[in-house]
């Protein structure tokens, strides 16, 4: 039971009892996805503490509904969708847009890891805006792979989609970004990792 995270001081008895009764599969899921969910939430919300609270609520929701989640065709895709809804609800409550373009982690990841790749771009703001305009799934693929620096196979696992679907979303996103920024792009030369 040492894998069970410390409960907040105000946690009531029912929550404590629930955490003791959860199956090992939930704790494995929690261990595998909590950090990346939190990183993703922080990129969009722009506040570490708020992101922690949102992800904690998502994990508690998943815990309470664990048996139902396990009956889903793709539990990972369902959990990802629940996270996305929770983040959007938080953004709606705060009356804001996703903070991705202002997040230092995104800025650092683009500048440090992909400086050469994006050297042709005249404006970082143009790139950020182009990414922000992507449809939901290609946006998630780009953020998870290039901003949070996850390999494509991990992106597929997190989103509950196939590796070829990740590649397809990535190609579509790159093509749309290139069009938006008036850059040349050949989707058939997207020879990135498998």
TrEMBL record:
Record domain RNA polymerase sigma factor 70 region 4 type: where: 127-177
Gene3D superfamilies: Winged helix-like DNA-binding domain superfamily/Winged helix DNA-binding domain (1.10.10.10)
Keywords, in A-Z order: Sigma factor, Transcription, Transcription regulation
Alphabetical list of InterPro entries matching this protein: RNA_pol_sigma-70-like, RNA_pol_sigma70_r4_t2, RNA_pol_sigma_r3/r4-like, WH-like_DNA-bd_sf
Entry-linked PANTHER family: RNA POLYMERASE ECF-TYPE SIGMA FACTO, RNA POLYMERASE SIGMA-70 FACTOR ECF SUBFAMILY
UniProt similarity note: Belongs to the sigma-70 factor family. ECF subfamily.
Protein name: Sigma-70 family RNA polymerase sigma factor
Organism encoding this protein: Streptomyces millisiae
């Amino acid at each position: 039971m040492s894998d069970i995270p410390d409960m907040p001081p105000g946690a009531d008895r029912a929550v404590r009892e629930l955490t003791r009764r959860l199956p090992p599969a939930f704790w494995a899921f929690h261990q595998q996805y909590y950090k990346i969910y939190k990183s993703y939430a922080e990129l969009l919300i722009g506040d570490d503490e708020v992101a922690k609270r949102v992800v904690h609520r998502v994990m508690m929701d998943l815990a309470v509904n664990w048996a139902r989640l396990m009956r889903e065709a793709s539990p990972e895709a369902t959990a990802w969708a629940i996270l996305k809804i929770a983040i959007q609800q938080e953004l709606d409550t705060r009356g804001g847009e996703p903070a991705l373009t202002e997040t230092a982690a995104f800025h650092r990841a683009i500048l440090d890891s992909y400086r050469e790749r994006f050297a042709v771009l005249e404006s970082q703001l143009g790139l950020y805006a182009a990414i922000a305009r992507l449809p939901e799934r290609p946006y998630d693929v780009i953020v998870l792979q290039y901003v949070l620096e996850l390999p494509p196979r991990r992106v597929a696992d997190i989103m509950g989609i196939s590796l070829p679907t990740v590649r397809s979303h990535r190609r579509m996103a790159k093509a749309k970004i290139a069009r938006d920024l008036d850059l040349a792009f050949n989707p058939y030369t997207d020879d990135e990792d498998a």
